[in-house]
């Protein structure tokens, strides 16, 4: 029997499915929801009986989201003669295991340390969770995660996370925070040195966020060569009063738009983005790539997933499709994808530093309500 009612609601709420995924099923049933956010689509979905085909559609969307590796990285400054390897605990598994509480929805099943060099190490983890996408009932699934710490010759440390499911993202965030704190306790990183992340709420307004995201398709990169924007998820800023006359119909009528096409970057969407009328989440763009080890084409999805719901969401990039030219068919696609995302993330930090210098972002700490927090003594 397929889940329905309250069991279905619980399953969907614990999944990575978006409001657009759920609205797709509802629309096929003739149910049209004006506001496509999950808090509106989930109750409607729970009130219908899903067919086996509809349930398979949701399973496939969920599996695609969880099987795609999402890469994000953050920077900090090293302040020690120690190497990264010397600053880490001798046994990494107990260090990571104590970060997972007993009542956690997932369980750490494996944790090993991979040493590329004294200043380039990776913590490889695997977690087990109950996964409803394997059949109509919950069953066990395993998800891998990587946390890489590297230091360059200038003393810049990069924390790189490679997550799949939300559970691995949660674990990697805990590992990153705990590792940074450990390095500070050892004096390898200054007490006042923070982890520099690129967070959605740091940007001053919608126009600035759009400018940042658009810069990735305008950059002069020696490896990646932009071809077209093929997919965009945007929200409508209902608070704005600056809509052009021919787009006034958007206000109050449309909550979120998902566009699919070949040359979205040549449409009025970009103009509305410049005006700050749209809340940009993620962009999907096609690139050619060319470097000594490989040539081909790829599609990269990047930006701030679910930014309309979570102001503290971190910038992510992921290669969702890659095709190698025939002469490079023997090259590992996984290796190429990892290299391309690293190039993408490198540009991200360069651009973010420029935005800081230009006063377009504010990295002051915020709470869950997106309000600034004061660090220090009160009055």
Description:
- The chain has 379 residues and is an alpha+beta fold.
- The protein folds into three domains: 62 residues; 116 residues, 2-Layer Sandwich (TATA-Binding Protein), CATH 3.30.310; 157 residues, no CATH class.
- The protein contains ten helices and ten strands.
- Strands 1-5-4-3-2 form a five-stranded antiparallel β-sheet, with helices on both faces. The protein has a five-stranded antiparallel β-sheet with strand order 7-6-8-9-10.
- Strand 8 and strand 9 form a beta hairpin.
- Helix 1 packs antiparallel against helix 3 and helix 2 crosses helix 3.
- It is globular.
- 32% of the residues are buried.
What does the secondary structure layout of this molecule look like, with pairings?
Layout: H1 6-13, H2 19-28, H3 38-46, H4 52-67, E1 70-77, H5 84-87, H6 92-97, E2 106-117, E3 120-131, E4 139-151, E5 156-163, H7 166-185, H8 206-218, E6 224-236, E7 256-260, H9 268-274, E8 278-291, E9 294-303, E10 316-324, H10 333-357
Antiparallel strand pairs: 1-5, 2-3, 3-4, 4-5, 6-7, 6-8, 8-9, 9-10
Helix pairs in contact: 1-3, 2-3
